[in-house]
């Protein structure tokens, strides 16, 4: 009789697959809801996202600058030719044997022989002192062998090693490598790379601070709502989730804005670069962000927004108690 009047509550067990489905449905609802919260204040949200986009576009633009500069300097590395001045009095057979021998070096890509007669003809044509050569009894210029290193040995360090190796040959009187300008160029590029990395870290840190401060203000504006949610028994993860998705949206849309700004900058500068390249008979074209670089930038921006919001939420929501 007692069991009939006061029946015990029936506990219904929800299947595992339904709980799994509802978990993701709940996440989707909160993600859409957080996007709706941003839409309620479009100007403020857009301004924050624009600041994030500019902060991310600056290091991306510097990266493209270095990327295109390395394309240009890659062809200049091949200009690191080694000039070998041969000993006077070498026979043609000895000279040809020497050329064949060094052409078999693993570091050597091409070998060009300039005879004494060719050297005089080039000097007469290019120097403007051709008439002075007519007063000389003998040809003062030596035969020269120009050695072009392979691309993997065309760097300043590799070319110097090749020069030292070639100077050990008995047929060589003197070797010369006009590499100082290339060393200065590589030093400038390395300095630019270090500067870009430092600036990128500072700008990415600013992204963290901007998102963190924006989420903090959102938490303070919804303080009363958070207190009510805690009173009715909402879990911390349920309260945290909308703010985490807000940070994710800030990073994602900020990354998209950064991509648009970077691509627009490339398109704006492309015509000027084509005009300058045409003056040097070059078909050089600016490279933009590749698809993998685009995905990396979007992923990094989203991750920064999520990390910043997570740190802020953990700190400030814990301090709110009803």
Descriptive overview:
The protein is α+β, with helices and mostly antiparallel strands and 322 residues long. The protein has 2 domains: 28-75 and 185-319, no CATH class; 81-178, 2-Layer Sandwich (Alpha-Beta Plaits), CATH 3.30.70. It has 11 helices and 4 strands, in the order αααβαβααβαβαααα. It has a 4-stranded antiparallel β-sheet with strand order 2-3-1-4. Helix 2 (16-40) packs across helix 10, helix 3 (42-76) packs antiparallel against helix 8 (180-221) and helix 8 (180-221) packs antiparallel against helix 10 (236-279). It is elongated and about 105 Å long. The two termini are 44 Å apart.
Q: Can you tell me the number of structural domains? A: 2
Alpha-beta classification = alpha+beta
Spell out the helices and strands N to C: HHHEHEHHEHEHHHH
Measured by DSSP, the beta-strand proportion falls in: 5-15%
First and last CA, distance: 44 Å
Helix content: 55-70%
- Largest pleated sheet: 4 strands, antiparallel
Q: What's the helix count?
A: 11
Spatially, the strands of the biggest sheet line up as 2-3-1-4
Uncertain residue ranges: none
Using only C-alpha atoms, the radius of gyration works out to 35 Å
User: Outline, from the CA principal axes?
Assistant: elongated
Number of strands: 4
Subcellular location: Cell inner membrane
Keywords: Cell cycle, Cell division, Cell inner membrane, Cell membrane, Membrane, Transmembrane, Transmembrane helix
Subunit structure: Forms a membrane-associated complex with FtsE.
Domain FtsX extracellular: 81-161
